[in-house]
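Could you please consider the sequence and fold following this short note?
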Amino acid sequence: MSNGWRRSDLLFAAFGLAGLELVQAGEAPSSNAIKVDDSTFHCIRQMTPVRHFYVDNLRGNIAATLAAANDPKGAVYPEGSVVQLVPTEAMVKREKGFSPATGDWEFFELDVSKDGSKIRERGFAEVNNRFGNNCFACHAPAHEPWDFVCETGHGCAPLPINHTMTGALQRSDPRCGPEALQPGDTLALWKLKAMLLIRAASNWFRSFV
């Protein structure tokens, strides 16, 4: 990407979320703790696709995660569930009682490259994207019965990007090796870049007001 915008910049900046008061997470018993580190996150397309997003389960219970994701009435996701719409953002279902305010979901911002993933930021109600907007605020309206997972009709505010753009980001995940772009993906990525440049310019001008 030119003009100082890397592909990971596009991935990170895809979502502008509203702010939310911070909530302190609890401590999980160490014997039951789910290990989450840089190595947890890999090529998004190696996860299991569900409609427009991907899921996995760090406990190996992918069947239960899929059952929750596909329940038309909504369901609570099992421990270890991982949900990702784009490569640089993830939510992981932690141990029961770890963070009641967020439904035990932990949110992650990631740096991704051909060499793998680096956790840029992690936490519960306090995680913001690189523009300072809060992740949990977007998911809070989908509390019940969708267990904080946003999709169309779940009560979350519409995303500023469409499924063509999120699909293009998924298919250009640098951790997956060669890009698997489909017709229209290159244009979608350039449109996303233009949107972000306009937003950055607008923020710059507002800083002088």
Q: What stands out?
A: Residues 1-5, 11-29 have pLDDT under 50 and may be disordered. The longest strand covers residues 105-113. The beta strands are 48-50, 53-57, 81-84, 89-93, 105-113, 116-123.
